[in-house]
Design a protein that fits this description.
The chain has helices at 10-26, 79-92; strands at residues 2-5, 30-35, 38-44, 48-58, 61-70, 96-98. With 100 residues, the chain is an alpha+beta fold. The protein has a single domain (2-95), classed as TATA-Binding Protein (2-Layer Sandwich), CATH 3.30.310. Strands 2-3-4-5-1-6 form a six-stranded antiparallel β-sheet. Strand 3 and strand 4 (48-58) form a beta hairpin. The longest helix has 17 residues, at 10-26. The model has no long low-confidence stretch (mean pLDDT 88).
């Protein structure tokens, strides 16, 4: 998965993602952290799942490429739902999503 959002600063993107994901019944279960061009989205509830992205700012936007995906066994039945919510949040931020 690749996506880009019209926000230049990676930390700002992380804050917006975290805020919007928490609003989808995931409060206290989702964290979004950025460090050295890597953004990690973690879900912690009866196991830990993570989506790790490489982030690059260019012009007035930031592009993300999925680098690693680890899904906890108990999360697998719900991952499609989470990924749908994640995609909706990206679109709500004005972002574009590409599968690759």
């Amino acid at each position: 998965m690749r996506f880009s959002v019209p926000v230049k600063d990676t930390r700002t993107v992380c804050e917006l993602l975290a805020k919007m994901l928490r609003g989808h019944e995931l409060d206290g279960k989702v964290s979004v952290n950025a460090r050295n061009g890597i953004v990690a989205v973690e879900i912690r509830h009866m196991g830990t799942s993570s989506l790790v992205f490489e982030a690059r700012s260019a012009g007035g936007s930031t592009a993300f490429r999925l680098k690693e995906k680890k899904i906890a066994y108990l999360h697998r039945p719900f991952m499609e739902i989470f990924e749908g919510r994640f995609r909706r949040v990206i679109r709500d931020l004005g972002g574009e999503i590409r599968e690759a």
